[in-house]
Amino acid sequence: MVALYNCANSCCEGGQPLPQETIRITQLGKSLPSPILVKASHDGASLRAENGIEHDWNYLDLHSERKRYTNGRVIFVVRDPRDTIVSLYHQLSSRTTRPVGLTLSEFIRSPEYGWDRMMRFYAIWDANLRTPRSMLLMSYEGLLRSPATGIEHVANFLGVKLSQEQVSKIADVSSAETMRQGERQGKIAQMRVLGSGLNALKVRKAKSGTYKEEMSEEDQLWCEKKMSDFPVVFSDLVKEKGADFIQLENSIA
Q1: Which pLDDT belongs to residue 22?
Q2: How far is CA 152 from CA 2, 5, 25, 74, 149, in A?
Q3: Are 157 and 75 in contact (CB under 8 A)?
Q4: CATH fold of 3-11+21-48+57-249
Q5: Of 24, 130, 189, 246, which sees the most CB atoms within 10 A?
Q6: Tens-digit pLDDT profile for residues 111-122
Q7: Contact indicator for 129, 68 with CB cutoff of 8 Å
Q8: What residues does each domain of the chain span?
Q9: 3-state SS string over 15-68?
Q10: Is there a contact between 92 and 100 (Cβ–Cβ < 8 Å)?
Q11: Full strand arrangement of the beta sheet holding 73-78
């Protein structure tokens, strides 16, 4: 899974009114002395929308530079690619009106959907770690271990002050079980209800290492070979620093 958030010095526009009790970083950002716009993006990695509409298959190959982020701040969330590819498989098999119709083994090896395309995206960001003005690299596994710590890092990165009560509340309402309940009940904006089964949910298992439960031993070995052939810089950074959350400050010429 990759979740990329671009934060720029600009006023936010539009949006639906939020319930009074809702705490959102995007809304808090607008209340700062210098308002910020927080935008979530797959940054060209998405292939097929939940309504079945195809995205540009050639986007990654045609747009490898990330100059548009030069003056921005980027929060980049990374995950074990073996878990990522399984999650992507369920997204394109169960969370779209036009499922791909492949087995997991076929999907992993698919040049259009699978491992190699995912790693091309990672390679682009490996080459652009120093492009944004500042960057917060976040480990999905770290967020699972300590949601509150992750929330505090995001708030500090954006310059948003949160009380411990607010941090605890955000961690509680964004827990996997709470999100699953809200999704099944159609209470979460922009989450389409495509079924109540676990694999049809946007928030599925929300665990680390679940690829072992779904991949065959042959598939696991295939992925491990691929990982050894293509190490990624941000994974090395996480290992080197022994941290789940790493902030990079880059000088802009």
Answers
A1: 44
A2: 20, 16, 11, 16, 5
A3: yes
A4: Rossmann fold (3.40.50)
A5: 246
A6: 888 999 888 888
A7: no
A8: 3-11+21-48+57-249
A9: CCCCCCCCCCHHHHHHCCCCCCEEEEECCCCCCECCCCCECCCCHHHHCCCCHH
A10: yes
A11: 37-41, 3-8, 73-78, 134-139, 245-249
| Tokens describing residue 243 | 């941290």
Whether the Cβ atoms of residue 92 and residue 46 lie closer than 8 Å to each other: no
pTM exceeds 0.85, yes or no: no
pLDDT recorded at residue 3:
42
Q: Which residues of the chain have pLDDT under 50?
A: 1-23, 253
Write down the pLDDT at residue 164: 94
* The two structure tokens encoding residue 142: 């770290």
* Residue 176, pLDDT score: 77
Residue 69's SS3 state is helix
Neighbours of 218 (CB within 10 A): 9
Question: Element (H or E) spanning 180, and its range?
Answer: helix 176-184
What's the token pair of residue 88?
A: 């992507």
Position 24, amino acid: R
pLDDT of residue 189: 64
Q: Are the beta carbons of 167 and 148 closer than 8 angstroms?
A: yes
- CB atoms near residue 219 (< 10 Å): 20
| Per-residue model confidence (pLDDT) at position 48 | 65
The reported pLDDT for the residue numbered 1 is: 36
